[in-house]
Amino acid sequence: MISIQTLDGDASFQAYCAEPVGTPRAAIVVIQEIFGVNQGIRQKCDRLATEGYLAVAPDLFWRLQPGIELDPDMPEQFKEALGWMGKFNQDAGIRDIEATIRWARGRLGSGGKVGVVGYCLGGRLAYMTAARTDVDASVGYYGVGLDGLLGEKHGIAHPLLLHIPQEDHFVDKDAQAAIHAGLDDHPRVTLFDYPGEDHGFATEMGKRRSAVSADLADSRTSAFFAENLG
Q1: Global pTM?
Q2: What is the DSSP string of 56-80?
């Protein structure tokens, strides 16, 4: 775990950091689900480190309660996670992601590129990060409520990849259609649909994982970052 200063410099928050062997090819900020920086998110970082990236996952719920780690397969913990989500300030979360991006650029030195990848809540925040910051590349898995954020699409200046499971019980068919209608012709945005898949299909472990589609989505993400981060 490392400590990162807020943009205002008046506080700090913790983040999990996985470092590659040798000089990082780039850095990737891994944006949590509603379950905190749990084992699955840490494993995402560890995997990225094996691919040569400096990977860091900030604890975005720190203003509510530092160190939240929940298991989505446990019903009572899933319910607890929804409660935290309801209290979470997403605008503050974006500022903390931007602070993490700046920290990563400082670690990389001049010319170092930084991407973000997010899941669930993190998929939504990855879209918002693409629209509101100068991050070099962004990936969102099953982001929720993106149809309500299409008014921000003109702020997307760098490549954005979105993975959309077609049977997502948090994102209905109308919302998916609106996302496609709003973003299909955007020159910086790529969308991939996953027929038959539900929310959380690319998690590292647990009941939600669908291995074949998860591996396909992750291979597309790897190729995307290789192209856009170097």
Answers
A1: 0.96
A2: EEE-TTTTT-TT-B--TTSHHHHHH
Nearest to 130 by CA among 119, 142, 113, 117: 117
State the helix-helix crossing angle for 90-108 and 121-132, rounded to 10 degrees: 70
In the chain, where the domains are located: 2-229
Catalytically active residues are 168, 199
Architecture of domain 2-229: 3-Layer(aba) Sandwich (3.40)
Give CA–CA dist 205/203, Å, rounded. 6
Q: Considering only CA atoms, which of 30, 189, 188 is closest in space to residue 104? A: 30
Tokens of 126: 């990855």
**Residue 121 CA: distances (Å) to CA of 107, 149, 230:** 26, 13, 27
Per-residue pLDDT tens digits of the chain, which is 230 residues long: 999 999 999 999 999 999 999 999 999 999 999 999 999 999 999 999 999 999 999 999 999 999 999 999 999 999 999 999 999 999 999 999 999 999 999 999 888 999 999 999 999 999 999 999 999 999 999 999 999 999 999 999 999 999 999 999 999 999 999 999 999 999 999 999 999 999 999 999 999 999 999 999 999 999 999 999 98
Residue 12 near residue 4 (C-beta atoms within 8 A): yes
